[in-house]
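#struct-help
A.M.: can someone run this one for me? Single chain, 558 residues.
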Amino acid sequence: MSEFLKLAYELIAKIIYNIVQCFVALFHLLFTGWGEYALIFNTYFWTLTPVAKVLAIILALVLIAIPVLIVVLAARHIVLNIRLRADKEDNSTLYREIGRLNKQVLDLIDEKNKLLALKVNAMGGTERIPYMGASALADDKLPTVGNVTSGQMAVGADGVPIAVGGVGDVNVENVGEGKQLGVVTINKEMTSEDPSLNMAIRFPKLTLVDERYKDYVKPAYDNSVTLQQFTEGYRLFAASQLHLYYTQEIVRRFVAGMAASKILILEGISGTGKTSLPYSFSRYLLNPATLVSVQPSYRDRTELLGYFNEFSKRFNETEFLRALYEAGYREDPSFIVLDEMNLARIEYYFAEMLSVLEMPSHDEWVLDLVPTSWPKDPVLLEEGKIHVSDTRWFVGTANNDDSTFTITDKVYDRAIPIELNERAAAFECESYPACPISTTHLQELFAKAKEEHPISDAMLEKMNKLDVYLQTRFKLAFGNRIIKQMYEFIPVYVACGGTEVDGFDYIIARKVLKKFESLNVSFVRDEIKGLIEYIEKTFGKAHMEDSKSYLTRIQNLY
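D.P.: on it. Structure tokens below:
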């Protein structure tokens, strides 16, 4: 046992000795060793060359700075510790403040969830999610907690209910000096026969549209104009009146696109006139377009159409909804421009409109806004539904950069894409007047173009050959929708002054060959050259320039 104690003593003593030696060496390094350092420096310094002397001085300064910095940092740390310990409350105040802020964050999250519940209620459902502060959204009037929890609602001086509750009687209570606040209870199963609903206007914007069109007199339409005169007249009007310049080709594609689809997508680099094209075209028709700036937060139909607020009993209307409703009063073509439409996913917020416009009958172009009708609802609403007028076109502008989403095939297939990648040259012309035209006459011009300029048998044969080639080599088919758009687009394009092969070329390039971007990269690169040769052999080397240019660009890109 004594041997073990000796072992332990010597081992522990050696460890303690080494630890002490470390502190002694560190103390000697930082404080007592400066005499030795100076002696070494003085011994060698006077024998060095001038350059070496400079380097020796720099080395000495660096070696002095290191321990000084260590001492300063240690002293600063000690001082801060002393100051913190001098505070009798220590960090408890800070912790309490953090707790208070966390509680506020939770309260804000709760408020956000209540607002989302409000939006869910507006979109339908049998169960209503309670929200104590919802009445603050209507008329800036706050009910008492008792009114809300007891199932009652305050009624303002204008007779508009503020919050919905249960069933009860009408009461009057004093609020302040000489003021009274009526408190009325309404059954949750409210019907249009209720007196309070007879006085309620839940679509103020649409009601103002009704008022404006009470004594509306439609303009004198020029229903003698031809398609070629119509398109050329627009170019002259835009140049002379608005100083906007477009090529004949772009205008032909725009008008032919109107014949083929209710949705047009204008793509290209910034500054080429994508937004100004539908704007100036609407001015040419004397029916100004409605501009809707798409936001990145758009995710569903309520961003465009709005939603019904269950608490204020009003519909949160948007400019898109107002323009959609106003088109029902007009006979001339009108446009809604979705500016920067691919800042959000189009197939999310525009999905219902895409589906509705696919319906074969215009009577089925109907959107549900509210489940029932009220006496004071706008004139053109039927049982809470709005009809999408045949006179309305939707024009979207799109930039292709890192800030936008890719436009999916679902959207492209239903729309007519038009590329604007360069500005047209300015030209001088005499002042040209606007040309108001009715939608009926425009549709008659489209139908007349199909009769006078049907797709030729030779073109149909070449189209079928190309279709077979694409199916065999690339597993791509035209599809029924694209075929239908061809039969609408090409005759109108020809009637506007274009050629049949150029119209076919544009549709192939923008609607069929664009699908190459989703195919295997190496496979496309190897097969594109053969496809270009086949197109030149079938249509001639002087034709199908759009398609060949697009294929060459894809080939170089890969």
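A.M.: thanks! Residues 50-86 form the longest helix (37 residues).
D.P.: also worth noting: Residues 124-193 have pLDDT under 50 and may be disordered.
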